[in-house]
């Protein structure tokens, strides 16, 4: 999930649990049922729903095709420069996660 406060994690986990439970009952009226349950659970409280930057960045990377930079920037309310930086950062993260094949050496000719 990102770096959330404990309360933020608790809220997101509760909302996720509510939606998961209600989704098993079928979709007609799902939105109203979930809204009613959330209102019962948190009614009268001021709550903060944390923003998960990691998920947003992963979605931006998944949607990026090279020719849709302006659409992505508009959709996620970020600058085009920020989209480029996010794409570069996500590419680097994915490169780090890849493991080498046995017998492959980087930087040495075979």
Automatic annotation (TrEMBL):
For this UniProt entry, which residues form the secretion signal? none
Where is the Mor transcription activator domain positioned along the sequence? 27-98
PANTHER family linked: MU-LIKE PROPHAGE FLUMU PROTEIN C
> What is this protein's record name?
Mor transcription activator domain-containing protein
């Amino acid at each position: 999930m990102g770096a959330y406060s404990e309360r933020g994690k608790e809220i997101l986990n509760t909302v996720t649990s509510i939606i998961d439970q209600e989704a098993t009952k079928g979709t007609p009226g799902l939105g109203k049922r979930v809204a009613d349950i959330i209102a019962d659970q948190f009614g009268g409280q001021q709550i903060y729903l944390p923003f998960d930057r990691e998920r947003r960045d992963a979605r931006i990377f998944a949607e990026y095709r090279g020719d849709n930079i302006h659409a992505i920037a508009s959709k996620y309310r970020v600058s085009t420069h920020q989209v480029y930086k996010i794409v570069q950062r996500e590419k680097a993260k994915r490169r780090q996660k890849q493991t080498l094949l046995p017998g492959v050496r980087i930087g040495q000719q075979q």
